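Lecture 7, part 2: worked example. A protein chain together with zinc ion.
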Amino acid sequence: MTMNDQDLVIGLDVGGTEIKAGLLRGAEILSARRWPTEREKGPEHSVNQVLLAAKEMHREFPDAVAVGVVVPGVVDSKAGIAEYSENIGWRDIPFGKLVNEVTGLPVGFGHDVRAGGVAESLYGAGQGFRDSLFIPIGTGIAGALVIDGELYDNPYGGEIGHLDVNSGYMCACGIVGCLESISTGPSIVRIYNEKSSTKLSDSSEVVKAAKNGDLLAAEVWLASVEAIAFTLTAYINILAPEIIILGGGVSKAGDDLLKPIEAYIDRRLTFQKRPKLAIAHLGDHAGMIGSGIFGLRARG
Ligand SMILES: [Zn+2]
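Predicted complex, written out as structure tokens:
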């Protein structure tokens, strides 16, 4: 790797609601801006919002030597193409080429979760580990694998959210039983609200209720967390990561998430090497910092 992390780079992390943009030096965010994705106006408009963000960042920060762009969905990073996003609705968008046309800079392109995994591995909780698994648990659940120091960059890899945990609930993918149907932030809230006839709006409120002695909340939380732990033991048995890094909104629960996962994993492992479990360090910025890393790598 020839990248110099002292160079200034522009990183764009495209989400369903907003585009987070930053001027970066390594993991340091020197300036940050946001643009709305406005997906309700259609995928073509959202593509233009990304190009607008890239163009304006480049105009504002002409010293940047490269730009990185990361998006959700199915991504062909080598070809620079966003193949498909159910969330934003686009298909086969050649972002690598388009962003290069509006900025004239080398463009690194990739997947948002895998970018976050690379960022956590280089600058966050995964520093010093060769094999890591990064799992953001938010409105969805996906995994980014770093194996022997290299990102496993398979467009269809890491879909831990669609492993069958026998939840009994319908998943957005159209199948009953997936991890996402029970363990994402919105799923945890939905299940608790259905069972209790209340109207909580965030999974952190379910955790709080559980801590205040609400037995139903405790039961819903534990079932969700143990479903996550079940899928992690599958990963551990197959790939034996040295560290598992939990991120996303649900990971703000901290020890209330880590402790029951650790207890479950301890029950399920005997001779296997037990990975370290940690909460992500870079928070909401992991994807943007990772996009900067992709940008610098594209420059070579
Ligand atoms: Zn599914």
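Residues 3 and 177 are 43 Å apart (CA to CA). The domain at 9-117+284-299 is CATH 3.30.420.40 (Nucleotidyltransferase; domain 5). Keep this in mind for problem set question 3.
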